[in-house]
TrEMBL record:
One of its GO terms (biological process) is inorganic cation transmembrane transport. The lineage of its organism: Eukaryota, Metazoa, Chordata, Craniata, Vertebrata. Pfam families: Neur_chan_LBD, Neur_chan_memb. The chain crosses the membrane at residues 248-267, 279-296, 308-333, 434-454. Residues 1-25 form the signal peptide. Forms homopentameric as well as heteropentameric serotonin-activated cation-selective channel complexes with HTR3A. The homomeric complex is not functional. Heteropentameric complexes display properties which resemble that of neuronal serotonin-activated channels in vivo. Residues 52-247 form the Neurotransmitter-gated ion-channel ligand-binding domain. It is found in: Postsynaptic cell membrane. Residues 254-356 form the Neurotransmitter-gated ion-channel transmembrane domain. This is 5-hydroxytryptamine receptor 3D. One of its GO terms (molecular function) is serotonin-gated monoatomic cation channel activity. Forms serotonin (5-hydroxytryptamine/5-HT3)-activated cation-selective channel complexes, which when activated cause fast, depolarizing responses in neurons. Keywords: Cell membrane, Disulfide bond, Ion channel, Ion transport, Ligand-gated ion channel, Membrane, Postsynaptic cell membrane, Receptor, Signal, Synapse, Transmembrane, Transmembrane helix, Transport.
Length: 456
């Protein structure tokens, strides 16, 4: 009797428990009889559709977990002026809806159904950096499984604000952020999670983007954080998208032509300074370079000062310098051949020092083409104070001795003048070489600096 009572008690308890459990399970289970014969019965899902205005949870103090994943399929444009990156991505959202549940065995083995999204509750995930109207197509579908997992995929053209640094253009790398967060639900009602490992997202996106467009996807990283707005916290997942520009187009269109022009400019120093072609040649180069700059203006970013602008300015100033140098040397040559000014003693000794001994011995007989007789006079003739002292008796002697002597004096004067001219010419050549070396030195250092800056 006792045993029976106990047994009865236990049976009753079990029955109640079973009924309770069964009941709670049954309330939301969709009766799908006939799905395999007549198709899905909309009435069976009506209870679910009616609840779409509310967050699908049984206990409202439990937050909904929404898992996020995306595939970056293209980087369409990076606008340095507006600081915008336009990309294309497929966003996947996965969450659990406890009101959708059926037994696949009773439903002709159907375990997955697609349902039009306008009938379902959707999480309001958006991207913080988004700077455009959402152009997501309407009328998309979502997949629901017999366990209530809902998967919603949508394509998005994302125009996101991004802090772009174009200093290293065209060898620049950018680090743009995409922060996914809920528009309304605080952390008490919605938590975000990752559907896939971020490395996997990165790998898939890299494979997709690989051979497309101007930008290469380097890496995607991710951090989770809670964003505080007023007193509430919002769950947020931030993805860092690191991209690098393909510089090939810019190297071909900007750096190579500019490099060629500056190389030709440097080579034009080998045109003899007394030739009339040097200045016009350099002028043409300068004009050509200006035209090139005007044409290439469109390719350059509009804001900021990238290093490449500095490089262009440098090339331009080198060309201007080389033109000015040519003008100066031409002027100097003209001046000294028409009316050579007396040469200061220090300059003369400097010339003697600087020109190599071989050159000095070679030039001396050439210049004094009247013969060896003139060479002893040349040296004192150039040292002005001595020249004056030595020259004073010269004309007197010539007057006394008559014509032959005076012509000889004139010849000597002429020779001395010619020698002075030749020295000045030599000086001009030296100046030319010196300035050319300075030019080369400046060019080499500045271009190396820029290349070093670019490669870091
Ligand atoms: C499911 O619905 C059919 C008719 O639509 C009904 O005959 C059947 O009893 C229902 N099953 C359950 C478990 O409620
Ligand atoms: C709802 O969830 C909260 C927190 O998990 C729990 O304390 C509470 O008992 C739950 N309510 C019901 C009716 O299960
Ligand atoms: C979301 O991801 C977490 C792990 O990150 C997992 O435990 C959870 O079941 C996922 N939720 C859904 C709805 O897939
Ligand atoms: C991503 O790709 C790299 C090599 O490209 C590989 O080593 C790594 O295992 C991949 N990671 C995932 C999660 O697929
Ligand atoms: C992008 O910037 C964030 C923070 O500024 C940093 O944590 C992340 O490592 C950067 N990513 C790359 C690839 O440099």
């Amino acid at each position: 009797m006792e045993r029976g009572w106990l047994h009865g008690e236990g049976f009753l308890f079990c029955l109640i428990l079973h009924l309770l459990l069964q009941g709670s399970a049954d309330i939301f289970t969709i009766n799908c009889s006939g799905f395999d014969q007549h198709g899905v019965d909309p009435a069976a899902f009506q209870a679910v559709f009616d609840r779409k205005a509310f967050r699908p949870v049984i206990n409202y103090s439990i937050p909904t977990q929404v898992n996020i994943s995306f595939t970056l399929s293209a980087i369409l444009e990076v606008d340095a002026q507006l600081q915008l990156m336009t990309s294309f991505l497929w966003l996947n959202l996965i969450w659990y809806n406890p009101f959708i549940r059926w037994n696949p065995k009773e439903c002709g083995g159907i375990s997955k159904l697609s349902i039009a999204t306008e009938n379902l509750w959707l999480p309001d995930i958006f991207i913080n950096e988004f700077m455009d109207v959402d152009q997501t197509p309407t009328g998309l579908m979502a997949y629901v499984t017999s366990e209530g997992h809902t998967r919603y995929d949508k394509p998005m053209k994302v125009t996101s604000i991004c802090n772009l640094d174009i200093f290293y253009f065209p060898f620049d790398e950018q680090n743009c952020t995409l922060s996914f967060t809920s528009f309304l639900y605080t952390v008490e009602t919605m938590v975000l999670g990752l559907e896939k490992d971020v490395q996997e997202i990165s790998n898939i996106s890299q494979n997709l983007i690989q051979n497309k467009g101007e930008w290469i996807l380097l890496d995607i990283r991710q951090t989770m954080m809670k964003m505080a707005v007023d007193d509430s916290y919002y769950d947020q997942i931030t993805f860092y998208v690191a991209i690098r520009r393909r510089p090939f187009l810019y190297v071909i269109n900007l750096l190579v032509p500019s490099g060629f022009l500056i190389a030709i400019d440097a080579l034009s120093f080998f045109l003899p300074p007394e030739s009339e072609n040097r200045a016009p040649f350099k002028m043409t180069l300068l004009l050509g370079y200006n035209v090139f700059l005007l044409m290439m203006n469109d390719l350059l970013p509009d804001t900021g000062t990238p290093l490449i602008s500095v490089y262009f300015a440098l090339c331009l100033s080198l060309m201007v310098f080389s033109l000015l140098e040519t003008v100066f040397i031409t002027y100097l040559l003209h001046l000294v051949t028409i009316q050579p000014p007396p040469m200061p003693r220090w300059l003369y000794s400097l010339l003697l020092h600087c020109t190599s001994p071989r050159e000095r011995y070679l030039t001396a007989p050439q210049k004094g083409n009247k013969g060896l007789r003139l060479t002893p006079i040349q040296l004192p003739g150039l040292k002005e104070p001595m020249e004056l002292v030595g020259k004073v008796p010269g004309p007197q002697e010539a007057e006394l001795n008559g014509c032959p002597e005076s012509t000889r004096g004139q010849q000597e004067d002429e020779a001395q003048k010619q020698h002075l001219v030749s020295l000045w010419v030599q000086f001009s050549y030296m100046m030319d070489t010196l300035l050319f070396r300075l030019y080369l030195l400046f060019m080499a250092t500045s271009i190396t600096t820029i290349i070093v800056l670019w490669s870091t």
